[in-house]
Design brief:
This protein is α+β, with helices and mostly antiparallel strands. It has twelve helices and 15 strands. A hairpin with a 7-residue loop joins strand 2 and strand 3. The longest helix has 28 residues. It is globular, with a radius of gyration of 26 Å. The termini are far apart.
Length: 364
Amino acid sequence: MALVAGIFACTPKEESYTIKGSISGENLKDGKAYLVNFARNDSQRDTVEFKNGKFTFKGSVQTPENYAILVEGIEGRITLFLDNSDITIKAQSDNLSEAEISGGTTQNMIEALNEQKAEIEKRYNIEAILEEFYNSETSDERKQEIVNTYGKAEKEFEALDSAFFAQNPVSFYTLSKLAENVEEYTVQEMDAKIAAFEALPQFEGNRFLEQIKKSVEALRQLQPGMKVPDFTLNDPEGNPVSLSSVYSQHKITMIDFWAGWCGPCRRFNPQLVEIYNQFKDKGFGIIGVSLDSDESVWKSAIEDDNLEWIQVSDLKYWDSEAAELYHVKYIPQNIFVDSEGKVVQRKVEKEEIIPMLESYLENK
């Protein structure tokens, strides 16, 4: 008996959360309350009774992150950063977004940070100047003044974030934001950050940490001089085309990630056609990798934009295997490789493409 008691005494208590909420207002009806996260590939959802203006959620999260609470019959939602804490929520039915949230360890940290940002917004009168900026009667000169003012506020926001992350290098919120901004750091810096999180048991199995590790491994292969991973996708006629079969035919090849539904991509295509025609006889090639899901949209865009170079796609939208290999989080995006598939340069801005090609091809 003593041995059994000792075993249970040494067993760590499973971390969990309790969210107790109350909503005040007129004409409230009983129904359901829903707790949902925002992750596209790891959807989490819970449903409880909403009765007499109250609801209670209980559970545990392996990946603390932003969640929303929605209530039947009430417009809007309550957003919070959910970790394994006891949380209390008080809200008005006509303004859920301004709910009072207390008790959440990470939520409290975020609210303190947001309060400082709100002070900056108030000092620069951000809401008013943005409204003025989009007013058709605002002069170009005044718009530039507003842009300059907003830029100053942004620098202060960035300074606040930097200070927060420096003071809280291994918080759940820091990890979630780091997953969004992996490329702001070198691979070596990211290796050190990953090691710090992996050293702490509360981050075991955290989706953001796994996502970051995967991103860093992809980025490690995309550094200048590294040989890029090969892939094979179908062209519009259904024929398989490997990346290596394309770059081996040119002195330098642009891997162009785009899509027929992507406005900025389509607006850039005429300029890219001109660049291609200017350099194609000098050893420049392009392979377009589409993040389309609708084959007809993809094919129409190729035809309408007069794209003569090789085009491939697996028609998996943002789940494109090539996009995952190349850590593509937005489009248009590019990477240039030499005839051996080694990285020359990545994420070249459109105005920098011609000078880069001129310089590279002149030396080859």
